[in-house]
Specification:
The complex is a heterodimer of chains A (about 750) and B (about 150). With about 750 residues, chain A is of the alpha+beta class. In chain A, the strands form 6 sheets. In chain A, strands 2-1-5-4-3 form a 5-stranded antiparallel β-sheet, sandwiched between helices. Chain A has a 5-stranded antiparallel β-sheet with strand order 7-6-10-9-8, sandwiched between helices. A 5-stranded antiparallel β-sheet of chain A has the order 12-11-15-14-13, with helices on both faces. In chain A, α19 (about 495-555) packs antiparallel against α20 and α21 packs across α23 (about 640-655). Chain A is rod-shaped and about 245 Å long. Chain A starts with 11 loop residues before the first helix and ends in a 6-residue tail after the last strand. Chain B is of the alpha/beta class. Chain B is about 35% helix and about 15% strand. Chain B contains 5 helices and 5 strands; from the N terminus they run βαβαβαβαβα. Chain B has a 5-stranded parallel β-sheet, with helices on both faces. Classes of the chains: A alpha+beta (about 750), B alpha/beta (about 150). Chains A and B meet through α19 and α20 of A and α1 and α5 of B.
Chain lengths: ~750, ~150
């Protein structure tokens, strides 16, 4: 450390000299004035300050260079100085060149050698003065700014009273300034805002950080309410008292605009939400940003599942390349229209989506549509078109003038025209026999009948090479909105016609053969008839002779015959008669098979009653209890059915003749499609073991000795019933009677 | 006695047994002497129209009734019937058809040609006699022909 240097001791002269030096070099002007305001001594700075040489300054009075001093003022100055010892004031010094300099002067009084002197220290305050002027000017500007501000500006005191208001605030609140100053600030607030402002005030006092700006409702003097934005700040005035300064801006219009904008936005939002179209905001990084709810319906995902998701994940693998290309185009700010790809739904199925996308920076605004159904319809349409084109029959449609507007492949092929040629043709070009008038009247008729009429006809079509061929045409009138078309389905029926002709020829041949066969059959039948007749005729004649001659023998040669001889003759006669009966029955049986059935409704009850009455001999009637129920009416040949009843009733009477009493019961019932009739007796009956023989020709279950008969009756019954399409059967028991039943169909069947 | 002169009944019958039995039946009713038997159609026509071996029978009176079997040799019964019924002189003579069966298809043809009646010849002798007697009595004694 450097040792402190001890100050060297000085003499009185030395110290005065030092003071002199110091004065001379001081950075401010120093004047020594005597009591008569005359300069006694100055330093260098004073000379420079006023622009005089020292010799020029010494001896001048203050009035020569101070613009403000007058002798009176000097006297007042001297007096004030003698009382206070020092003074400070501002003044103006006049330099030698006449310029005025503002100065601040500090004066100190002292006495030397019994005389009064004063030292004046003058400091050039030009710069300070300039700054003060600038400040003053700036203050003026600010005030003017505040006064003329477009915002309402105010200050309130502690008691919330307006202490300052600018013109704009007066205008905003609708008060004259005089009324506003001193008015309680709260008077101009709406009820709501008053509470809000009070709350804010309290919280701000507590030191909470609150937003500087907030919206309030201002109640103007004319009681109208306006929305204003208020910003407040607490500032201290020059006296250090905190004051609340505030600014009000009328935002009513802005609010209204905001409100309408909000409404508009809401409307758009609503539209976004309710539209049936699929709307989407995505970004070029491949993420869904926002989607409307319609997507949920289409893809089955909820919006939260979709939003923020990479949409490529959902794109069908085959469509991902094209989708990336489209996103690339959008990134390059190109509009992409009518782009189609497939999106996977939550259930794994795919839907076809058609897009119209607009780029906006890295966002993509897209409207999309689910065209899956349309695609399907188009595919179905393509398929139908294909089917119609390829159908193996001629399909074409014609306009009002019978000109072809479409013809399928087969139509062209069958007629030998190209499709272009076909479309230049009219109906009469291909159908040489279709009358034009018929087309016109048909068209009119179809127009009346919007159900779409049509016709079905066979006609001829003419090929391009002039060859005609037969066709079958089915046509239908169709309405497509306001358009009408006539569709024709045409089948080449050449083959069918050939077949039809062949069939007709075959039918004719067959008919001819039937006629021939029938004639042959008739001839055979007639022959048989003739044969049967001659058999009966020729067989009966000898029988008649046998019977006759055996009777002659008995009558004419009785004397030559003993009892036994007569008995033999009786047997011969008897057997001849029996053979006659057999021939008759056989003939009857063969007739039953041959005669043509004449089927008519038959009252069976009446028929049975009359037959029974004919068969029964009055003396036997009492012995028999005959019960006849009401029988269903039948469809039958009356002659043949009469034979059936006759045979059955005769049998019943015959086989029950040993019963006392004999019971014969006839009944009938309808059952489904047939009627069953039966004849029941309590007679001899039969052994069911032989039931199969019952209906055979010449089959008998009883001896001639017990019950006479030829064994043909039941065979006739069976034959007649079979010819009617019915069935016959019998149930019996020896000595307990028998029941014979037969059925007849309700409707006549073809034999 | 000229056997032709008193003929009231002409029996046309080729079967001699039937003819004999018929005669027996008529004999029982004393009608036999008025009966003449023609053995076939040709003979019957000769007799009726007085031709051939019956030429001298001319101008004698016509039989009161003809009993005609349809099944005849040479000319059959229907031809005989047709000849009788288509001749102005003979068409009013009653002709009764004799047949073995009710179901003889020729019965209908005979009626169409103008036969007046028919009788089925039964196998049974009593029945036969009965039928023939009834016939003869009816046509000869009861039925008055317009002369």
């Amino acid at each position: 450390m450097k040792p402190q240097q001890q100050p060297k001791p000085t003499t009185e002269t030395e110290s005065f000299q030092a003071a002199q030096d110091c004065v001379q070099r001081a950075p401010f002007a120093i004047f020594r004035m005597d009591s008569d305001a005359r300069v006694v001594e100055v330093n260098d700075q004073a000379c420079r300050h006023l622009g005089y040489a020292r010799e020029e300054l010494i001896g001048r009075t203050v009035f020569d260079f101070d613009a403000t001093f007058t002798p009176e003022k000097w006297r007042a100055h001297r007096q004030s100085l003698s009382q206070e010892g020092t003074r400070r004031f501002e003044s103006l010094h006049r330099r030698k060149d006449g310029t005025i300099i503002p100065v601040e002067i500090n004066v100190v009084r002292f006495q030397l050698d019994g005389k009064d002197y004063s030292y004046s220290f003058a400091q050039d305050i030009s710069e300070r003065k300039q700054a003060e002027d600038a400040l003053q000017e700036s203050e003026g500007n600010f005030r003017s700014l505040v006064e003329n501000s477009l915002a309402g500006i105010f200050a309130v005191d502690d008691a919330y009273h307006f202490a300052y208001v600018n013109d704009e605030l007066c205008r905003l609140l609708g008060y004259p300034r005089e009324e506003l100053i001193g008015l309680d600030f709260r008077e101009v607030l709406s009820e709501n805002s008053r509470a809000l402002v009070a709350d804010r005030y309290v919280r701000r006092q507590r030191g909470e950080q609150l937003p500087q700006r907030y919206e309030i409702e201002i109640l103007r003097r004319d009681d109208t309410v306006r929305f204003m934005e208020m910003s407040v700040a607490v500032v201290k005035d020059p006296a250090g008292i905190p004051r609340t300064m505030g600014q009000l801006v009328d935002i009513t219009e802005r609010k209204q605009m905001e409100e309408s904008l909000r409404a508009k936005t809401e409307e758009l939002d609503q539209f976004f939400t309710v539209t049936l179209d699929l709307l989407c905001i995505a970004d070029t990084d491949g993420f869904f940003r926002r989607l409307n709810p319609q997507w949920e319906a289409v893809l089955g995902y909820s919006l939260p599942e979709l939003e923020g998701r990479q949409f490529l994940e959902l794109v069908h693998p085959d469509d991902q390349a094209s989708t990336l290309a489209a996103v690339g185009a959008l990134s390059a700010q190109k509009i992409v229209l009518d782009f189609v790809n497939r999106y996977r739904c939550k259930d794994g199925s795919y839907r076809w989506i058609e897009w119209r996308s607009y780029p906006a920076g890295n966002l993509i605004y897209a409207a999309a549509r689910d065209i899956t159904e349309r695609r399907k319809a188009e595919e179905a349409l393509r398929m139908f078109r294909f089917l119609i084109d390829q159908a193996p029959i001629h399909i074409s449609w014609m306009n009002k003038d019978a000109g072809f507007s479409y013809a399928n492949d087969q139509a062209c092929r069958s007629l030998g025209y190209s499709r272009e040629e076909m479309l230049r043709l009219h109906l009469w070009d291909i159908d040489p026999i279709y009358p034009k008038e018929r087309w016109e009247s048909n068209w009119e008729e179809y127009q009346q009948d919007r159900q779409g009429g049509g016709e079905h006809l066979e006609t001829l079509h003419r090929r391009k090479d002039g060859v005609d061929f037969p066709v079958e045409v089915s046509s239908k009138h169709l309405w497509f909105g306001d358009n009408e078309l006539h569709v024709a389905f045409v089948r080449d029926i050449s083959e069918r016609k050939k077949m039809e002709e062949k069939i007709q020829r075959m039918n004719e041949e067959l008919e001819q053969r039937v006629i021939e066969r029938t004639a042959q059959l008739e001839a055979a039948n007639n022959e048989l008839e003739a044969f049967a007749y001659s058999v009966s005729h020729d067989l009966r004649a000898p029988l008649r002779a046998i019977d006759g001659y055996s009777k002659i023998l008995i009558e004419d040669f009785a004397t030559h015959l003993d009892e036994e001889g007569k008995q033999v003759c009786a047997v011969i006669s008897n057997e001849a008669n029996r053979m006659g009966q057999l021939i008759d029955d056989l003939l009857a049986f063969s007739r039953v098979s041959r005669v043509e059935l004449q089927v008519v409704p038959v009252d069976m009850t009446a028929l049975v009653r009359s037959i029974y009455q004919k068969l029964i001999e009055p003396e036997k009637a009492e012995r028999i209890k005959f019960h006849l129920a009401t029988l269903p009416q039948a469809l039958a040949d009356p002659n043949l059915i009469q034979q059936v009843w006759t045979n059955l009733l005769a049998n019943a009477i015959k086989f029950s003749r040993q019963q006392q009493p004999a019971l014969i019961e006839v009944g009938g019932a309808q059952d489904g499609q047939e009627i069953t009739y039966w004849v029941r007796d309590n007679g001899a009956g039969f052994d069911m073991r032989f039931v199969g023989k019952l209906f055979g020709v010449f089959q008998r279950l009883h001896s001639e000795h017990e019950f006479e008969g030829t064994g043909v009756g039941l065979a006739i019954v069976q034959r007649v019933i079979q010819r009617h399409g019915g069935r016959v059967w019998a149930v019996g028991e020896v000595d307990r009677g028998a029941t014979f039943s037969f059925t007849l169909p309700l409707e006549r069947k073809n034999p | 006695m000229n056997p032709f002169e008193i003929v009231d009944i002409l029996l046309v019958e080729d079967n001699p047994r039937d003819a004999e039995l018929t005669m027996r039946a008529f004999k029982k009713h004393n009608l036999a002497n008025q009966l003449y038997v023609a053995k076939d159609g040709a003979e019957a026509l000769d007799f009726i129209f007085c031709q051939g071996k019956y030429a001298e029978r001319a101008k004698l009176r016509l039989p009161k009734v003809v009993l005609l079997d349809l099944k005849l040799p040479k000319i059959d019964g229907l031809e005989v019937l047709h000849a009788i019924k288509s001749n102005e002189q003979t068409r009013r003579i009653p002709v009764v058809i004799l047949t073995s069966s009710q179901q003889d298809p020729d019965i209908k043809s005979a009626y169409d040609l103008g036969a007046n009646s028919y009788v089925v010849k039964p196998v049974n002798f009593e029945g036969f006699v009965e039928a023939m007697s009834q016939l003869g009595l009816y046509w000869i004694l009861v039925n008055i022909t317009p002369d």
